[in-house]
């Protein structure tokens, strides 16, 4: 079958793509920016890519007319607190229009479980998207899931941050809300097995794991798998806003996502039936098995995708292309160079920068800068990096965003998503046996210049020692 995969660069899309290829399908990935599709050369040679922004005028975009089926994996929850539901509705309408010009027979949509009559804005938006898709000129299969647990998922990373950093927690009362978590590999199995299955056409199904747990149970369950204890005390006085700030400062989530998550966590999310599971004969994993499987992926460096790599998790509001040309005029620059002996070994060091490996010098100072960034609404350092030694354009890298990662030209270009009174780039490039490290800052007014000169003394020894340590290969 020829399949259109929307949201191909997202957390679910990146997990689904290799499965579809393994099944022998022809896949067309729909992304806003082809340069951001984080796949290796081997995978890239097996797929077709079309650039489509489903929030744009649908007349501007086309997809192949011989599409047999499509996956709708477009969500906007992390990008806005106020109008994400309007964006999601518009994207769905435009999707219907664009797919109306194809021979697509089935659309598969991953939605959220809706139990309550009074839904959160997030779940109400997901339900509204379902209703819009059902109006399209194709059959629809909707899979409704609750908490998805897997390496790199937002839910897993939040639980991980909370449990690993806070052995004792004072929590809001929403931690007593019931939910039904499901392992990411089970979600992928459901998504692939309904493909082309006419018994599932024009129906909505709840999918969930075998455990119905409170969020408190999930925190305790994580600690059990990891081999330690944690203590959780609930209080009724923590407002949604305070809860959002609590998640934002303790975990790697953005404030916008935290706000929307807290709004949804007040709602019970439990599967109403197991029709699809029985129909397909799928045996789902328990919550603790899902946690254990996630850590096996992490330990083997096999994490395919992470929610933190979404552009919506950072500060960039436009295409990455708009930031790749580092400005030459009206900027302040710190450039350092050092002669090296082994270009390939040094390039490996550059490609391992950030995350668990750190920044090669003064890691505690980078952590202080990350903490200060969190205080003013930035991402801080908690996003880390998805892969220990692989980098793709668009990836999150602590409080930077990867603009360019070209091993052939031996160049890595990062753009700062930390809160600063200006725009900042950090570039590493190897040419003719020389490693060049350039920090470029375009200040916004006088405040921007004062900021640059206030941190310049730190740059002198941080950047100077950083390039020396990157250049070491023995």
UniProtKB/TrEMBL annotation:
The keyword Transmembrane helix applies. The chain crosses the membrane at residues 450-467. Pfam families: DUF2867 (PF11066), NAD_binding_10 (PF13460). InterPro entries: DUF2867 (IPR021295), NAD(P)-bd_dom (IPR016040), NAD(P)-bd_dom_sf (IPR036291), NAD(P)-dependent_oxidoreduct (IPR051783). Keywords: Membrane, Transmembrane, Transmembrane helix. SUPFAM superfamilies: NAD(P)-binding Rossmann-fold domains (SSF51735). It comes from the Bacteria. Residues 7-147 form the NAD(P)-binding domain. This is SDR family oxidoreductase.
